[in-house]
UniProtKB/TrEMBL annotation, chain B:
GO terms for cellular component: cell envelope. PANTHER family: ARABINOSE-BINDING PROTEIN-RELATED (PTHR43649), SN-GLYCEROL-3-PHOSPHATE-BINDING PERIPLASMIC PROTEIN UGPB (PTHR43649:SF31). Keywords: Signal, Transport. Pfam families: SBP_bac_8. This is Sugar ABC transporter substrate-binding protein. The lineage of its organism: Bacteria, Bacillati, Bacillota, Bacilli, Lactobacillales. It is found in: Cell envelope. It comes from the Bacteria. Residues 1-24 form the signal peptide. Belongs to the bacterial solute-binding protein 1 family. It comes from Levilactobacillus acidifarinae DSM 19394 = JCM 15949.
Length: 301, 418
């Protein structure tokens, strides 16, 4: 393969750019340009969205967010929601994947069952959960023998959303963990067996550390996805952010400011905050896993 | 000589053919209809009715053509209008709430109807619909699909409990208390009770937001009016629909005496009410001796991007829709209010009302119907109002606190948008 070893020249770089052009164009138009526009718009003051008249630049929109109790609530709810969903999703998905890995005969069936929520429309899922959570006729209250108004009581509404999202996220993450488990070298397990390690010891000292790269991927992906939760809320609470805004998240706040209240620069500022927050927390999560040097599965041996 | 005659005949023939062709061509150019596009949020049966009327209009003449395009529900329609205004791909006309007009005027993409639609064209329209059509002295909105809040009642439960249709809000509250011991609920509201609150505060004589944009959310009289509903909710003689969306779901279960809902819901209630449920409608009760019913719904607006010819077609279409046969047909098929007095008095429509008594309540509410004043920032105010009612319903926040917050928020919104 002489081409692979060839030194890059201006011509070869231009050819490579030509090949990349379609994708770069799409990313440029649909990702980078909106991103730049959002950053700019978040600084506009006295802005007329339709005529593009910009009164000036400043931090007014961020100051608005700083003083808006609804934004504080959205921020609190989002953080609480992510903390509620991400660890639970990761551990439940790992548990389910480990169990499925031990049932090779039924694995395909269960894999399909767990994966179905991921490929089903979020709106349809939310409507079904809407019935399950119903105070009077819901299955959940019938099973638990309770009379909780899951979706209309502000004390339970965020919990209900967390339950739905954990359940919905599970399938995809199980598949990822299963893929990770199938790629583990069986010789490590065999060696641990020879050393007389118990099942629990094998899990904590062999399997779990070896799965770390996959866990990082799943955690980071789950953080990003769940910070942007919107569809489930919109469908579960009949187009609102739950009783007394109990389920308002940053994404819902952004939607409301943009589409309902016509406060476009405020929505843009919220988008910038959300972007920064996701970047920060994803970075911290990646750093945490790096620091703990759990990458024994491959590179660091 | 013979040759000359043949030559002349040929010349005459050619002249005739070319003249005829020219005539045909010129006829073709003059008859090419001016097309206008119309975005709406009508779905299901309402869309069928609208398409029927548009088709009637298109067939009534050859010069104009209306091409309608359903954009899904109203939320989708609003989003499409926002996106199209930004990308300058707006249709000629669209259905929207008149309360969006101030935003559209500020955005500079809506144009007044006045040059194309004369005051005399609208003289028969009920004043309550016209009040909201103007913004800063110019007519921008053409009333189109309008509804009123009405009181649905369960006939069987009323007979069983020996109660009659309440004439006042205090009677309604007392009825709720009377039937509570029997395991019945007095009244069901939709997800938010903001329309009923708006009505009650209007009935105190001072609207929530006055024409001069003075906010009246936490005055003593407004708080007393708010207590009428919150006291019922706290005593559990009334409920809000929550994630059911509409109080009709609970009303259908047959254990609720009354439901405060929109007259636009009548066809839906007719279609989905359980078979055994016998129900009727009445105008909303009065408060402190006054009647006031909020009129909701949508209007038509004309966009600036339309050509002069298209604007004239839009006006012609609006006038067509205001004519007695169309207004009557529209009202009968959709349950929306008839917009003109002529349609209201029409023998055909009166006959329809006699056969469909549930449609009467909304019509009876017309003399005391009112619409909120439109102002820049109204959508923000509506969110604030919705949040205030939601906090009172789900968190049992006191009217003093919730309406106090609403007062501050609304004053701030108005101030910022001046």
């Amino acid at each position: 393969m002489p081409m692979l070893n060839a030194k890059p020249t201006l011509k070869s770089t231009l050819i490579a750019l030509l090949y990349l052009a379609p994708l770069l164009l799409i990313v440029g138009v649909f990702t980078l340009w909106p991103l730049i526009t959002t950053f700019l718009m978040s600084g506009y003051t006295h802005y007329n969205y339709f005529t593009n008249h910009v009164g000036g630049l400043g931090m007014v929109n961020f100051q608005f967010l700083w003083h808006d109790p609804d934004f504080h609530l959205a921020l609190r709810n989002t953080l609480f929601f992510v903390i509620g969903v991400v660890p639970a999703t990761v551990f439940l998905a790992l548990g389910a994947a480990l169990l499925l890995n031990r049932l090779p005969q039924l694995a395909t069936f269960f894999r399909t069952v767990y994966f179905l929520p991921f490929v089903t429309s979020t709106v349809a899922i939310s409507l079904v959960w809407n019935w399950l959570f119903h105070r009077d006729n819901g299955l959940l209250n019938a099973l638990l023998r309770t009379h909780v108004d899951w979706l209309n009581d502000p004390h339970y509404a965020l919990g209900a959303l967390i339950i739905v999202c954990i359940w919905q996220n599970l399938g995809f993450n199980i598949i990822l963990f299963l893929a990770g488990l199938n790629h583990l070298d069986p010789r490590y397990q065999a060696a641990a067996n020879l050393d007389g390690a118990s099942t629990w010891q094998r899990l904590t000292n062999v399997t779990w550390p070896l799965l770390t790269p996959m866990t990082v991927l799943i955690t980071v992906n789950a953080i990003i996805t769940n910070f942007k939760v919107f569809n489930q809320i919109y469908a579960l609470f009949h187009g609102t952010a739950g009783p007394a805004n109990a389920d308002i998240t940053l994404m819902y706040y952004l939607y409301q400011k943009f589409y309902v209240e016509n406060q476009y620069p405020v929505a843009a500022a919220c988008g910038v905050v959300l972007f920064g927050l996701i970047l920060l927390i994803t970075g911290l999560a990646a750093l945490y896993f790096h620091r703990h040097a759990w990458w024994r599965g491959g590179q660091r041996g | 000589m013979k040759r000359l005659r043949q030559f002349l005949l040929l010349g005459l023939g050619l002249l005739t053919v070319s003249t005829l062709t020219a005539c045909a061509q010129s006829h073709a150019t003059t008859t090419k209809p001016v097309t206008i596009t119309f975005w709406h949020g009508m779905t299901d049966q309402h869309q069928v009715t609208l398409n029927h009327l548009i088709s009637q209009f298109n067939h009534s003449q050859t010069r104009y053509k209306v091409v309608a395009s359903g954009q899904g529900n109203f939320a989708n329609l609003q989003q499409k209008i926002t996106a199209a205004a930004k990308s300058q791909t707006l249709p000629t006309i669209a259905q929207t709430a008149y309360t969006n007009v101030p935003t559209y005027v500020q955005g500079g993409f809506v144009t007044p109807l006045t040059p194309y639609l004369k005051t005399s064209d609208l003289k028969d329209v009920y004043p309550v619909f016209l009040d909201s059509a103007s913004y800063r002295g110019k007519t921008y909105a053409f009333p189109f699909s309008k509804s009123a809040r009405v009181l649905f009642y369960n006939r069987k439960l009323l007979a069983q409990t020996g109660l009659r249709i309440p004439k006042t809000w205090s009677e309604l509250a007392q009825d709720g208390e009377k039937v509570q011991v029997q395991g019945l609920t007095g009244v069901a509201f939709d997800q938010s009770f903001m329309s009923e609150l708006d009505d009650l505060i209007q009935q105190t004589g001072t609207p929530l937001v006055s024409d001069k944009l003075k906010v009246n959310a936490n005055s003593q009289s407004a708080l007393r009016a708010t207590h009428v509903i919150t006291d019922m909710l706290n005593a559990k003689t009334a409920t809000t629909a929550g994630t059911d969306g509409y109080g009709s779901t609970q009303f259908f279960a047959g254990k609720t005496l009354f439901y405060c809902g929109s007259s636009a819901a009548i066809p839906i209630v007719q279609a989905s009410a359980p078979k055994g449920l016998k129900w009727g409608t009445a105008p909303l009760p009065s408060y402190r001796g006054r009647h006031a019913t909020s009129i909701a719904g949508n209007d038509l607006v004309l966009f600036k991007s339309a050509s002069t010819a298209q604007r004239k077609v839009a006006a012609a279409f609006m006038k067509f829709m205001l004519a007695k046969p169309q207004t009557t047909y529209w009202a009968q098929k959709t349950g929306y209010l008839p917009l003109t007095k002529a349609a209201q008095k029409d023998a055909n429509y009166q006959h329809y009302l006699a056969q469909h008594p549930t449609a009467k309540a909304a019509n009876q509410s017309l003399p005391f119907g009112f619409q909120d004043v439109a102002f820049l920032g109204y959508p923000q105010y509506l969110v604030a109002l919705s949040q205030a009612t939601d906090k009172m319903a789900s968190q049992h926040q006191s009217p003093k606190k919730a309406m106090g917050t609403l007062q501050t928020q609304t004053e701030k919104i108005i101030q910022q948008n001046r």
